Amino acid sequence: MEYYLMEPPFKAKSFYEMTKREAQIHYDWFIEKIPFRIDQLKRFYSEIAQEPAEVLDYSPESLVKLCGWYMKNAEIEEKTMLELQKEIVRTPEIARENILKQQISAGWMAVAEDIAIYFAECFVKAHETVKWNLTTRPKNYIYVNRPVLIGFKYNAEMSPVDLVKVLAARLLCEEIDENGLLNSYKIWVQDVAD
């Protein structure tokens, strides 16, 4: 099965560079693509795991299956010399010794992004106060112009994509935690606003 990357039908920019209008167009496109992204993820999971797609039922328990499957199957590849050189240039000298020579393949990072959407939808479907949102100000805000979840105490916003990318990156350090998504879910669910 070919896994389609999440590529917007317009020239992509850094979230920080987007105008309010561009951010809204990107957000609307992102929200519109959620059903397709989750359907593709479920079919891909089913094909590789040899399990029915219905096991991904948005329950907290399904996060363990999905995370464990990802950790076992994600492809890790060597970075090219050019990729390493670019990373060295943009990394402060004191931190360069921590640069990893491997990365998760682009295809499996696309799967991770879809897992992030699935993770977010677990909250949206279970808690009526949680929903997708777009914050366009202030421009220096960490999640400016990105689709995030709101509906948590203390006006906290969750970036599911960032959360899942951090979990996926643990693979590169050989820190495999099949409960990573469930543990994150349990932490965030405590702060769902009433």
Can you walk me through this structure?
The chain has 194 residues and is mainly alpha-helical. It has one domain (29-189). It has helices at 20-49, 60-73, 81-90, 106-126, 160-169, 180-189, and strands at 76-78, 102-104, 131-134, 147-150. The strands form two sheets. It has a two-stranded antiparallel ribbon. Strands 3-4 form a two-stranded antiparallel sheet. Helix 1 crosses helix 4, helix 2 (60-73) packs antiparallel against helix 6 and helix 4 crosses helix 5 (160-169). The radius of gyration is 17 Å and the shape is globular. It starts with 19 loop residues before the first helix and ends in a 5-residue tail after the last helix.
The secondary structure category is mainly alpha
Largest sheet: 2 strands, antiparallel
Give the ordered list of helices and strands: HHEHEHEEHH
Helix count, DSSP H or I runs of 4 or more residues? 6
Counting structural domains, the number is 1
Which descriptors would you attach to this protein?
194 residues; two-stranded antiparallel sheet
Question: Could you outline the blueprint of secondary structure elements for this entry?
Answer:
Elements (H helix, E strand, L loop, with lengths): L19 H30 L10 H14 L2 E3 L2 H10 L11 E3 L1 H21 L4 E4 L12 E4 L9 H10 L10 H10 L5
Antiparallel strand pairs: 1-2, 3-4
